[in-house]
Amino acid sequence: MDRKTVLRTFEDACVAHFGEAGGPQIAHLARPGFEIEAAADDASATGRCALGGPALLEPGTPWPEADGHPLSLLAVLDVDAFAPWLGEHLPRRVGLLNFFIVQPAPGQPYPEVDFDDPAWLRVVPADPAQVVQVPAPTGTVSFEREPLRAEPVLTMPDEWSPLVHAIDLGLDPPSSAAQVAEFYDACPLVRNPAGDAAFGWPVGELGAIHRWKDGHVHLLKLMDGQSGWPTLYFMIPEDAFRSGDFGQALVTQETY
């Protein structure tokens, strides 16, 4: 089914479960996203999505640094390939996104992170028609390239989210949360990825997402794979996303 058909079908299911008043409000919370998985090869990958490998940057774009030390490339997302599923949730053409982070050398401790300081990460956009492959500078921790496949999914906020609780379902909060959770489990259209993911709702697996900020767009969730970091969530303020100012991107993690 295409995105519009999925959303219509989902709203019908919400109305059938929650009624004419609450159903459309629950349906309105749905966000299209992607479950990210390893692809067998580039032919089965989604566009140019990949973990690790060379960065895909426009000529003249400097490799990002923090305190004079080059950052490490975690992933590249081909957001142009996501556009048909994201629809109005993608307010402008983005192209490719390169995700970088501070990465300690093998055997060195991971740095103590200030989650409000964007200096230790970068999200660098690039026009696919202009990019060149840029290998990491000498001495930078780098990761083997793994092509990725992005499966479209429809995601929902946690049943305990204030956004869900703001909807009057005629029940007390625990009963309301239980009914929403029951619906999520029963509805085949709802799928909040347990592993790596892009866009959609950033649902934590083991606990609350540390300092998740309202009014932000979830860009990428990466589990503790090659990099050794705990589960990371890259996000950006909605207004910065609309204007293409990826210098305002932040990263946070789950609280265990």
TrEMBL record:
Pfam families assigned to the protein according to its UniProt record, in alphabetical order: DUF1963
SUPFAM superfamilies attached to this UniProt entry: Hypothetical protein YwqG (SSF103032)
Protein name: DUF1963 domain-containing protein
